[in-house]
């Protein structure tokens, strides 16, 4: 499967470049995204100290084109970005968004190293113009000091990640609705519409309380891990497929590996 950055690979499809190692090959018809919640802050009960190393092994094994990351420290972006660059033999694009800490007014900090804590993404660098944007949600859990954020890499396909409120389902649902109902439409108006994929730990379930379904726009397809991690992709991309990825109990979530065709019709879905 072609993997790791739906928007990057669309750009590379148009440029007729290969997925692997930069060599010339037939255009990719599908790309792969890896969603990871790594519980890497050093403070939560799910922290094992092993998830970054396990994530590196999984990236080498699955060869994704884009990796969306939740519950990481800022330095983990460089660590895992270097792994992805080594896998594909070329540069990566990346972004990080710290989760604000309400009491201090600064970023939430990782207990294991004092770095900023938040969400991120890494991807094979697009050959077309691109930018990284992010922001905070206007509604937050009033009790949790960690405020929740979103992050997008905008290119030929927009890829976003987020980690929604974990202790207040009403806040999580409001954040989800704001992302799909306000933030993404605003980005599409500003930069022009592109196919869009959102992956992350939404702290909402599909079909059971707290239910994700009221948040899903009509123009998106849904995939999930059976629990709290979800991927939503606009229907102008081919129908995606997914499988869980074992992270060897290094975190409290499995990885979620998603493959999507670059054009609707499904011809690229599941391609290798």
From TrEMBL:
Alphabetically ordered keywords of this record: Endonuclease, Exonuclease, Hydrolase, Nuclease
Kinase listed as a keyword: no
Name by which UniProt lists this protein: Endonuclease/Exonuclease/phosphatase family protein
Domain Endonuclease/exonuclease/phosphatase as annotated: residue spans: 51-253
InterPro entries the UniProt entry points to: Endo/exonu/phosph_ase_sf (IPR036691), Endo/exonuclease/phosphatase (IPR005135), TAT_signal (IPR006311)
Residues spanning the membrane: none
PROSITE patterns: TAT (PS51318)
Source organism of the structure: Asanoa hainanensis
Gene3D superfamilies linked: Endonuclease/exonuclease/phosphatase
One MF annotation (Gene Ontology) recorded for this entry: endonuclease activity
Keyword Transferase on entry: no
Top-rank taxon: Bacteria
Lineage: Bacteria, Bacillati, Actinomycetota, Actinomycetes, Micromonosporales
């Amino acid at each position: 499967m072609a993997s790791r950055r739906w928007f990057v690979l669309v750009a590379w499809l148009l440029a007729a470049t290969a997925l692997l190692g930069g060599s010339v090959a037939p255009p990719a018809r599908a790309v792969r995204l890896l969603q990871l919640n790594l519980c890497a802050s050093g403070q939560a009960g799910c922290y094992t100290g092993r998830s970054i190393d396990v994530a590196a092994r999984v990236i080498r094994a699955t060869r994704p084109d884009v990796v969306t990351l939740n519950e990481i420290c800022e330095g983990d972006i460089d660590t895992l970005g270097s792994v992805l660059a080594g896998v594909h033999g070329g540069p990566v694009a990346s972004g990080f968004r710290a989760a604000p800490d309400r009491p201090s007014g600064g970023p939430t900090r990782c207990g294991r190293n004092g770095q900023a804590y938040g969400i991120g993404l890494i991807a094979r660098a697009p050959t077309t113009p691109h930018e990284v944007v992010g922001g905070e949600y206007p509604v937050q859990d009033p009790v949790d000091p960690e405020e929740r954020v979103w992050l997008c890499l905008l290119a030929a396909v927009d890829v976003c990640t987020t980690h929604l409120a974990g202790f207040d389902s009403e806040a999580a649902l409001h954040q989800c609705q704001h992302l799909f109902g306000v933030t993404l439409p605003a980005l599409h108006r500003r930069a022009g519409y592109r196919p869009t994929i959102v992956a992350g730990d939404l702290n909402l379930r599909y079909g059971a309380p707290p239910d994700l379904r009221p948040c899903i726009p009509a123009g998106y397809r849904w995939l999930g891990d059976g629990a709290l991690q979800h991927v939503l992709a606009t229907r102008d991309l081919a129908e995606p497929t997914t499988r869980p990825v074992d992270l060897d109990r290094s975190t409290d979530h499995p990885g979620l590996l998603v493959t999507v065709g670059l054009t609707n019709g499904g011809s690229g879905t599941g391609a290798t």
